[in-house]
Design a protein that fits this description.
Layout: H1 2-26, E1 31-37, H2 48-60, E2 65-70, H3 81-87, E3 92-95, H4 119-128, H5 131-140, E4 144-151, E5 158-160, E6 174-176, H6 179-185, E7 191-193, H7 200-206, E8 211-212, H8 217-223, E9 231-234, E10 243-249, H9 250-255, H10 258-292, E11 296-299, H11 302-322, H12 324-346, H13 348-358
Parallel strand pairs: 1-2, 1-3, 6-7, 6-8, 9-11
Antiparallel strand pairs: 3-10, 4-10, 5-8, 5-9
Helix pairs in contact: 2-10, 5-12, 6-11, 8-10, 11-12
Amino acid sequence: MERRSFLKKAAVGASAGAIAAPALAQSQPTINWRLASSFPKSLDTIYGAAETFSKRVSQLTGGKFNIRVFAGGEVVPALQVLDAVQAGTVEMGHSASYYYFGKDPTFAFDAAVPFGLNSRQQTAWFDQGGGRELTREFFRDYGVMNFQGGNTGAQMGGWFRREIKTVKDLNGLKMRISAFAGRVMQPLGLVPQQIAGGDIYPALEKGTIDAAEWIGPYDDEKLGFNKVAPFYYTPGWWEPSLQVSFYIGIKEWEKLPKEYQAAVETATYEAHVVMQAEYDARNPAALARMLKQGVKLRAFSKEIMEACSKSATTFMEEEASKNAKFRKIYEPWKRFRQDQNQWFSVAESSMQNFMISRK
């Protein structure tokens, strides 16, 4: 009798548990958000990170938290995503923080800094080296929270209509380039142009600009730059990695149930990792295809690299001397970069250089 009684109670308990789980899920609110991206849909890697994120959030919340992604220009202009989140026009954004360099150069630490950190180092700095805390304190003044949203890895140096051999060849050159790098190259005579990704091709084709950088082979091939500029330079020293970011208005974030906040944090990190893997997997074949089509691969000369490095250091030191927000991040970031470069020289770089030499 005791055994039958126990089994009966266990069965009742199991049924109650089966009913309670859906009831718990149903108790959470249905939330619909909009996310504005800075990137065109044609770029399934960098734009695709937002789609990866959106799908994962929906899965993790049983379809209760849905985030619709809009490509650059569909809701707001591609380079105004941060402003849209800040104003509450959309709840979320996906962008590269150095696009807002004009507001404050400090934004660049959340994205890419000339001669800065590679992708692994950037992730380590943000996740374990104090970068998240430092940048979020800065973003708080804009009413926005920033989350890692992908990394491109080291970028290429861009497409040029003619060869660039010396610093003198930069004089008067009109180039689409990120704002920070443009500011660094201005003293060398370059004329920087800030143009959204989807508008670069026509500007390069028509000769409105003489050169343009975007990301790397996989995306550059999709955008067709190899058809309008024959010389492809490396490396993109201004972006030894590019971390793109998700933005959420702080007020909107605080309204979310804790379970939804956890889903967001999980999904942003997953999208961050997936983007890097996609670029690493797809860039080699894309470069090989373009080289077969006649693209001329070139490396920036040591003269150009040294001049740009010197200009970058000068700018950052000057900015740190007058901009307290920039200095607060720059000083610990600089120490982290030094430690990382020393460590990478011991194992990572020596191992990689050996493997490259073997071919």
